[in-house]
Amino acid sequence: MPASGLTTVKKHLESTFAKLAVENRTAAAAMALERMQSPM
Prior knowledge:
By secondary structure, the protein is mostly helical. The protein contains two helices and no strands. The chain has one domain (3-37).
């Protein structure tokens, strides 16, 4: 993948993490697991 493609992916991930109010992929995954286990 070209360097410009990696930059784009990183920026998209940063935006997603900001919307979820998490710092990284691990925190986003933990949030998803918590939400999946919570009763609706």
